Amino acid sequence: MAPDPPDAPDDGPRGEGGRGAGAAALLPLLGGAGNLTSVTNCMTRLRVTVRDPSAVRRDELRALPGVLGIVGDGTALQIVLGPGAVAKVAPELARHVEAATAAGATPRTATPETVTAETVTPEHVTAEALAERGAALRAERKARNATPVKEFLRRIAQIFVPLIPALIGCGIVAGLAGLLSNLHWLPALAPALTACASGFMSLIAVFVGYNTAKEFGGTPVLGGAVAAIIVFPGVDRVSAFGEKLVPGQGGVLGALAAALLAAHVERWCRRRVPEALDVLVTPTVTVLVAGLVTLYGLMYAAGAVATAVGRFADWLLANGGAAAGFVLGGLFLPLVMLGLHQALIPIHTTLIQQQGSTVLLPILAMAGAGQVGAALALYVRLSHNTSVRRTIRSAMPAGLLGIGEPLIYGVSLPLGRPFATACVGGAFGGAFVGLLAQLGDTVGSTAIGPSGWALFPLLQGGHGPVRAVAVYGMGLLVGYAAGFVATYAFGLSRRSLRELNADHPAENSG
Q1: Torsions phi, psi of 9, nearest 5?
Q2: Active site includes 42?
Q3: How many whole angstroms separate alpha carbon 494 and alpha carbon 347?
Q4: Whole-number Å distance between alpha carbons of 232 and 224
Q5: Catalytic residue from among 42, 170, 269, 423
Q6: How is it placed in the membrane, per its record (predicted)?
Q7: CA-CA distance, 227 to 404, in Å (whole number)?
Q8: Distance CA 456, CA 280 (A)
Q9: Rounded to 5, what percent of the chain is helix, strand, coil?
Q10: Count of structural domains within the chain
Q11: Model-level pTM greater than 0.85?
Q12: Is residue 361 part of a domain?
């Protein structure tokens, strides 16, 4: 599943595909351009900050075709649009906000929503009611999970999320180059494709350093400058702890640590250096101090950590792949709910930089397969609840592509038991992929971000991409089947099944 923040949406998924959710359609429902203070996006979500939350027309927003779900409350709002669509909408919406800011626009007002989770009764168990329950669960969880550690992990994730499009693009090009080489097709083109795919990865430390400084209050280019030391070819003339350094040693972990140190040094200088000297002294001290510490400490330490991560991942799958896959696949959805999955992003990136792929992501992706299987079981069991079935139908394409939030937060999590049975499906799918890795059929992903069917173009394995695709595809089928069976048999109590399947004339008439 995509590495997005683990917040549950206020509203269930609505709409189909990507139609209708353009900037022009979203803008009035968000209170107008004057009501927006910032617009950003990740792989699947449009992130906006609003001045007046009551001006956001949530009911109409969630009913807009192309909107798969709404996440967040208060002034911070995330609209799940899916990959591709969000990349088109975000820049257009940002231009509207910039124009409104220049013109001095003011936000409009709207009547705030009054429906709460407490108004849900057994007689009205519809998609909207489940969405309200999901919102109540989210509010409770947000109060429990607002810890400094999880805030730090969120900021770490923000460093790597902007890099995902390049990782995906370069990963697919690298796979194409490998395919041409293995088939001995177009021998003159394969080296060119390899260069296209490898250029970004050879300098990924610089991008990590840039984003780290930006996220932690430093000057981005200074963070990138310090991180660039790690990939500079001349570091092989420097010795640390009695050993010659190697260009790239420490990788993204070293770059993250170096840029984080640079941001702290820079802020320290800004507070103490006179303004007349700041433009000369602060950048110099930042690069010098952070650079020397990086060369004589951070590169060596981060290199040791990165090597240990790679060896542990290999050992884990070689010696306990089935058990490890069962645990990782089964626990990933709860990790997402707690926000702890974001700690895995630097690990994935380190494995990709070090080994060419991350062997953990295909296993973790089985959690989404379990969720899809659970949703299919609910669709079959709730034959009389057209509202919930419509929600499942609209969210299923996104779920198959690895965007699990609409199904999780709009259906399974508010119902309780189906969320647990979805985890069972993920556990069995993960155990299958882990078992085959233990037997020698290791499957890895050359990029992070995509999941579900969207991960197929990024797969590689020790026995070639075709075998890797087959192993991963069979794992998805196991996850679908286990999630379906577990949910069909244990996902709903008799009382819940009776209440959810009660006829809803208002719903059935549509």
Answers
A1: -75, 155
A2: yes
A3: 43
A4: 12
A5: 42
A6: Multi-pass membrane protein
A7: 35
A8: 50
A9: 70, 5, 25
A10: 3
A11: no
A12: yes
